[in-house]
Amino acid sequence: MCSNGKEIDKFEQIFLNKIKTISEGISQISESEDHLDQLSNEIDELIKYTTNSLHFIPAFTIRKRLTEIKALQNKLEIIRQKRLSHKKFNFKSTLNTKKPPKNIQKTSKISVEESFGFHSRQNETLTLFRDELVNKNIVLKNLKNCHVYLSGPMAGIQLIDLESTRVHSGPVSSSVLAQNCRECHFYVACLQLRISFSRDCRFNSHVGNRAVLENSSGIGFGDYSYEYEGVEEDFEFVGLRKGESKYAGVDDFNWLNQQEKSPNYYFFE
User: Which residues form a coiled coil (predicted)?
Assistant: First the structure.
């Protein structure tokens, strides 16, 4: 018991020192993209250190510390998004978005809760192109049996209340949030991927940080595979490095047993 108490004290000291260092780094962040990546990597290392300590740290302490880590991730994400919004769109004029299959028709767009996207649709194919997506926060809400093509770079995506829907998305500079989705298939590339209250969904994903899973089950992860003309430039534009995905890294906040993998997710080829 005494030994366990010493381990907990040591964990707390190391954790608090690390989180202080990262917080100071965020508050004094430079203009360098490498600095952003460095801080992101430090947060990843802190997550690993925390999850590696699950066997002797009380569950309520782990939840508290993971919440603090999420707050740091949010701060870093906001900075990255603000920086991106000041970038000038500098793609070559010769780049044109690859046309989707012939049976796809461009549909009207609507505003959803002050964001751009599609809302309350069934059995439709929905498309948005690069000039409509740049630096936009996209919301897809209450879609059923739809196919969605987002061929361009975005600031963020929210996937809310989707059922039996397939979404092909270009890269995102910040986060993709999937909430209350059922039996869907997503192709997403982003800095952070957060999945909550969802079930039986598959994610072909490229992520800059470990994916976060909350109150979800039957979630599959595979490598990102959506290709369209200009996708390489879009990755560069949002600050992601193609080929450096961490899609196989998943933190399930409802599974704290380090000795066994969470049964709430799986990997596929």
Answer: 29-82
CATH code given to domain 119-255: 2.160.20.70
C-beta separation of 155 from 132 below 8 A: no
pLDDT, tens digit (0-9, with 9 covering 90-100), for 42-89: 887 887 787 777 677 776 777 788 778 878 877 877 777 676 655 544
Torsion over CA: 67, 52, 33, 194 (sign): negative
**Residue pLDDT, tens place only, 239-266:** 888 877 776 788 888 887 767 888 999 9
112 DSSP β-pair partners: 115
Domain ranges for the chain: 2-83, 119-255
Q: Is the pTM of this model over 0.70?
A: no
Query: Which residues on adjacent β-strands are paired with residue 36?
Result: none
Distance between CA atoms of residues 170 and 242, nearest Å: 12
- Cβ count within 10 A of residue 32: 9
Q: Which of left, alpha, beta for 183 (phi over 0: left; psi -120 to 50: alpha)?
A: left
The answer to whether domain 2-83 has CATH 1.20.58.1250 is yes
